[in-house]
Amino acid sequence: MDASPAPVIALTNGTGGAQLSIPQLGFGTYKIPDDQAQEAVTTALSVGYRHIDTAQMYGNEAGVGRAIATCGLARDDLFITSKLNNPNHRRDDALRSFDESMRALGLDVLDLFLVHWPLADSPGIDLAETWSTMIEILESGRVRAIGVSNHQPEHLRRIIEATGVTPAVNQIELHPRLIQSELRELHAELGIVTESWSPLGRGRMLEVPDVVEMAEQMGVSPAQVIIRWHLQHGLVVIPKSTHRERMSCNAEVLGFELSAEQMAALDALDRGERTGSHPDRVQV
Ligand SMILES: NC(=O)c1ccc[n+]([C@@H]2O[C@H](COP(=O)([O-])OP(=O)(O)OC[C@H]3O[C@@H](n4cnc5c(N)ncnc54)[C@H](OP(=O)(O)O)[C@@H]3O)[C@@H](O)[C@H]2O)c1
User: Fold this and answer.
1) β 20-23/8-11 pair status
2) Residue nearest atom 37 of ligand 1, based on CA coordinates
3) How far apart, in whole angstroms, are the C-alpha atoms of residue 124 and residue 44?
4) Residues lining ligand 1, judged by CB closer than 6 Å?
5) Which percentage of the chain shows pLDDT scores above 70?
6) How much is the pLDDT for 53?
7) What's domain 8-270's superfamily in CATH?
């Protein structure tokens, strides 16, 4: 089976600057502790991933940075994302914590920096002000693109209206039990790339009988079926695993194709079911 890297998707950075692209398949690092992150990310890079997703909140940027420093790959061949943590939304905290992330990651320039959660109802926090600080960071030249995560339609409209700058990406929970049709349509209209977090539903999607049966029929694994579904929908997908064989198998998704009927059957599994928090419930 072909294990070549997945295709890339063009990103706009909101300022009309240089065109950038994001590898459609990335490696997620949530819940990988810092002292295991170097090994996990080194393994992911060695089996072909070139896009790594971390966050201030995960506490593993230093471990990810050690893997980047020692992997022997050219910086330009890697795409690194991090995210602004919830206690860091105020301007001074955002600027300081961005500096800390860059030191931990050992990078001069980050590829993508996201606002992790909108915190729309948190007292003293205004998502448009947070987004203005993200624009300031973009304009400093130390990040190639900025985006958001967990933003609902009203949050996207508010920050774009307030600043005129559209996020390059919205990273949201997305898998066949939560297909996020409304947000995906809005993203397409606004030119925002949709990135799927918990793309395997934290592993739960792999036990859904329809998925298991489809995988058996195709001679692939349930995880490959689900990752292929994301790719064929044009989504950026960042599965996490701490096992080399799973990392490798999850990246071997270019040698087969789901039919239109199979894609529709997976879409029909939508129940609006979240594995993580609803964005409106996350506060500082
Ligand atoms: N922006 C946000 O708010 C947000 C929220 C959550 C996640 N994320 C990002 O999205 C990434 C992915 O989401 P996630 O980590 O929550 O969940 P996920 O990628 O949907 O699922 C990970 C789980 O599936 C298991 N798994 C992976 N591949 C497998 C395979 N081939 N066969 C069997 N089991 C397999 C993993 O176990 P093992 O590790 O034991 O293999 C782990 O328990 C995160 O790591 C993070 O980077 C972002």
Assistant:
1) antiparallel
2) 241
3) 39
4) 28-30, 53, 116, 149-150, 171, 197-203, 206, 221, 223, 238-243, 246, 249-250, 276
5) 96
6) 99
7) NADP-dependent oxidoreductase domain (3.20.20.100)
